[in-house]
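Known limitations

C-alpha cells in this collection are predictions and should be treated as such. Users comparing against experimental data should check residue numbering before alignment. To illustrate the layout, the record for Polyketide cyclase is reproduced below. The input appears on top and the generated C-alpha cells appear beneath it.
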Amino acid sequence: MARFEFDTTWDLDAPIEAVFDALTDSLHWPDWWPGLEDVRQLEAGDEHGVGRTQCFVWKSRLGYYLRFNIRITRVRRPWLIEGKASGDVAGIGSWQLHEQQKGTRVRYLWQVRTVRPWMGLLARVARPLVVWNHDVMMREGRAGLANHLRCVPAPCGHAPAREPFKQRW
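Generated C-alpha cells:
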C-alpha cells in the first residue's frame, strides 16, 4: 500500500452556489471532466446528500483504471462536501469552497492509500508519474468545470453566502 496526500486549489469565475451545485451533481461530472469514464448511483442519501454513495471509474493518463466508491459523510451548503473512498483506493476527500470577490476558490484535499497490490508496486516504482497523473487530471477537471460553469446562468439578485464556521485556509 502507498499513501498519497493531494491538495489542489481551483480559482473559478463563478458564484459559490453554482460551483457547489456542479460539484454535488457528480453523476454529470463525466460530461465535463476528462478521464472520468462513469459514475453510478448506489445509494441516494438524505436530503442534504449525506449517505449518498456513488461508484466512480477513472481512466488515468497512464492507461490504468481506478474504481472506487465515495460515500458522502458531511455536507455544509455551499462550503463543504466530505466523503469516504473505498475500492482501489481508500481514504477521505473533501471539497472546501470559499467565496471570493471575483468567484469561488475551491480546495480539494484527497488523502488516500492504494488497496490493490499492483498499485502499491506502481506507486513505489513510479510515484512521480502517479503524482503527475493526478495533477494533470485535476487541471483538466478545473478547465472542464470552468467551461461548464460558463453555460450555467447566474442567479438573479445573487447575495454573497455567509459561512457559519471559520475558514480553514
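For this record: Residues 42 and 67 are 14 Å apart (CA to CA). The first helix runs from residue 16 to 24. Please report discrepancies through the issue tracker.
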